[in-house]
Task: structure prediction
Amino acid sequence: MPERIASIDITDPPKVIVSHVGLVSIVLDPGEGVDGRFLVHVEQEALQCHTYTFTVKMTVTPWIFGTIGFWKKWNKHKTYTKQQIEEWLDTIDAESLWLGTNYLGLVDPTFATLAEIISAMESKYSTLPTGASLKS
Result:
């Protein structure tokens, strides 16, 4: 399954600023790598023959793709199993504040079916959650 670079955390020494150029959101297929550019800016006169060390931590997340029509017929094209989809929904439920009773209008999000969740999401297509619905 493809994965997307979700975030990049850089730990750099004092007086040195390290940043990356355009790596977040790149989608990688299994076994594929990415070459990236990093910018290093030194806020002091550089020391001769001195090594500045920094670390880069990349976090990747599964890249799940498909249109609304694709997901409505998920059980017909057999791209993903029911168990895979249920695991993704569990992850979304655990990590996302959008899957709440105020925003999607689900009576009990924990036991909502895939069809109920998709229907609720489609009904909210052009709306954004408010601060109050994110706190539920």
Summary: DSSP finds six helices and five strands in the chain.
